[in-house]
Amino acid sequence: PLIAVLAGDGIGPEVTAEARRVLEALGLDLTFEEAPVGGAGYLASGMPLPPDTLALAKRADAVLFGAIGDPRFDALERRLRPEAALLGLRRELGLFANIRPATLFPGLEDASPLKPEVVANLDIVIVRELTGDVYFGEKGHRTTLEGLRQGYDHMSYDEREVERIAIVGFEMAKRRRRKLCSVDKANVLETSQLWREVVNEVSVSYPEVALTHMYVDNAAMQLVRRPSEFDVIVTGNLFGDILSDQASMCAGSIGMLPSASLSDWSGANGMYEPIHGSAPDIAGTGKANPCAAILSAAMLLRHSLADEASAQRIEAAVKAAIASGARTADLGGTLSTREMGDAVLRELV
Amino acid sequence: PLIAVLAGDGIGPEVTAEARRVLEALGLDLTFEEAPVGGAGYLASGMPLPPDTLALAKRADAVLFGAIGDPRFDALERRLRPEAALLGLRRELGLFANIRPATLFPGLEDASPLKPEVVANLDIVIVRELTGDVYFGEKGHRTTLEGLRQGYDHMSYDEREVERIAIVGFEMAKRRRRKLCSVDKANVLETSQLWREVVNEVSVSYPEVALTHMYVDNAAMQLVRRPSEFDVIVTGNLFGDILSDQASMCAGSIGMLPSASLSDWSGANGMYEPIHGSAPDIAGTGKANPCAAILSAAMLLRHSLADEASAQRIEAAVKAAIASGARTADLGGTLSTREMGDAVLRELV
Ligand SMILES: CC(C)[C@H](C(=O)O)[C@@H](O)C(=O)O
Ligand SMILES: CC(C)[C@H](C(=O)O)[C@@H](O)C(=O)O
User: CA of B301 to nearest chain A CA: how many angstroms apart?
Assistant: First the structure.
């Protein structure tokens, strides 16, 4: 199988290198091909998502993605900024389903700002819709009739978009503790009202899953109050962006959290990335935690290569490394990115 | 001065009664007039915001609001549901500035799911825009060209809307620790890009305030990680809805948090309400915490009646009651709503 390695900007290359080392250590038949993306893509060829990079991503069996974002390019027009690469890949590869697990690794109870008893047994999955919502609607600047500058973005979902992400949520819940919480703002948004309607329709096919609905403001509160009550959360693109970053704090550090972005349940063309960003402030210092990238590689094996056994080998190794006390700076330790990679490799059995 | 008392649904009447008792105990020259709103308005006259209620709110010097929301009316069309009353009052009274302080009262460190050292010294104010954004844009259901049901909502801000709320944020910060954090999603939304542009323009008039910008996903994370680093946060309607509910957890309980909604900096026609909702599950049981309502009454005195001294008397009384160990169920105690009101009244000096 061919893995496209798009390491990107900031700490992306550092953490992706460790993920690749771990994948290589498994002795599987994998081929790796690298290509620039984000700010790196812009520097290499004048655009954040160079055509060759996109072609590689499409050709590959899976994409291992690092991070994008570089303040040097913030002043460029939107289509040239690093973020455009990420949004472009999601759209071009049809990656509508973003799976973001948040698990507390034993030993990290103290790394969380939440009380240990609040995060004990935390094991949630956020299923975030990734190719619709206000992210991809018509948007722009215009002048109002009164001559005022105005910015606007169109938010919408249609029933097919909601149905397919709802199915991912229910399928995920079915394989876990069978609780699905759908998050929306149906008391204010028509988009949410359709969302709720369709999720209810899909639920008829999943009588074994207990479905609840929650407003996003309440969900943001409950994720701090009683995060371990959640099993699977399914939500739209914008709310998912906010809630999954927030949930990362329950897991101790955003440096521990991987993600998978899928275009269908079979995992073809999936893209795998840590949910943290490019962290320009620590880029190049060797301080970044590579665990999120390494755990993303595990998700790659699980979802795109159907190799559950190897995925679990990686996850067990990360768990063991953490249990043995290996800690990067974000977890209150002193290990470098490379040393944390070494620690995981040592535990790989 | 005339105070319109719109107690509303669920626990609204119970907590508002305590707030009114505290106001009455101050011996000020206040007149109170009650009117039904929300589900109560619908029951009384077939609409959530009866014309007489709106007229009273407009005529009054300030509105003391309880809560709206009643599951019995969830199936009604949007304009008849309780929420329509709240959105209608905000729009009709032009209440564009929603001020939501989140302070940790000494003694409540343990009530928060966050570690005591994380919430120590918490004292933030969220300034939320309240009459624009995707809340008030064009919205509806339609059928796409492919024959699919679609829900949509239009998000937008114009420069005047952003400017006036930014001014509130800067003015607030100027009177406090002089740090303003503007929260948006400018890497994805054009609405946010205009937001950021205008906030930067307004900042020129406030050289003494240190302005930062933060993406909403990161803000949701930082509000869990290091909430006490924030001083004043200014943000749009939707993000403010999410972040302020989330921030309430830092303060121990949403039952402690008041809010003010203003149509201008002078406070004329302001509306004051606890940020919690109607809590239908405990309505009528006498379990609700009246502190948020009582503290909202304090904000009413401060902002609409320019009576800072009386506002501080109330706040000091709540603080003393909490310090003396008075606790309702949400804070892990056993006091009833009325008993908590008594505890505050006892401390009123
Ligand atoms: C970089 C940004 C466009 C992106 C998003 O908002 O989706 C990021 O925050 C994420 O969650 O992957
Ligand atoms: C009830 C609802 C419409 C309202 C809102 O979203 O503004 C509430 O959550 C609030 O924050 O006051």
Answer: 28
Residue type, A329: A
In the predicted model, what is the mean pLDDT of residues A191-212? Answer: 98
Q: Which are the contacts of A91, defined by CB distance < 8 A and separation ≥ 6?
A: A131, A136
With a cut of 90, say whether residue B329 has pLDDT above it: yes
CA distance B23 to B15: 13
Among protein residues, the one with the nearest Cα to ligand 2's atom 8 is B241
Kindly list the structural domains of chain A, giving each domain's residue range(s) and its CATH number in brackets, ordered by start: 1-96+254-349 (3.40.718.10), 113-251 (3.40.718.10)
Helices (H), chain A: 12-25, 39-45, 51-59, 82-92, 116-119, 159-174, 190-203, 216-225, 237-248, 291-303, 308-323, 337-347
Q: Nearest to residue A295, comparing CAs of A99, A113, A10?
A: A99
**Of B256, B216, B222, B259, residue with least CA distance to B239:** B216
What lies within 8 Å, CB to CB, of A285 at 6+ separation is none
CA of residue B65 to ligand 1 center, whole Å: 37
The residues of B annotated with a catalytic role in the active site are: 135, 185, 217, 241, 245
Spatial distance between the Cα atoms of B307 and B226, rounded to a whole number of angstroms: 33
* Residue in this structure with the two tokens 């009576």, named with its chain if needed: B307
Give me the DSSP letters along B237-301. HHHHHHHHHHHHGGGS-GGG---EEESSTT-TTEEE--SS---TTTTTTT----HHHHHHHHHHH
Hunting for tokens 């930067």 — which residue is that?
B200
Measure the CA angle with vertex B178, ends B157 and B197; round to 5°. 25
Chain B, nearest residue to A194 by Cα: B151
User: Angle CA(A216)–CA(A218)–CA(A223) in degrees, nearest 5?
Assistant: 95
The model carries a pTM of: 0.96
**B200-219 burial, b for 16+ CB within 10 Å, e for fewer?**
eebbeebeebebebbbbbbb
Q: Which residue has the tokens 């819709």?
A: A129
- pLDDT tens for residues B59-97? 999 999 999 998 899 889 889 999 999 999 999 999 999
Structure tokens at B193: 């890009």
Q: Are A296 and A260 spatial neighbours (Cβ–Cβ below 8 Å)?
A: yes
Interface test with A, best of B86, B117, B242 (most A CBs within 10 A): B242
Retrieve residue B16's tokens.
């508002």
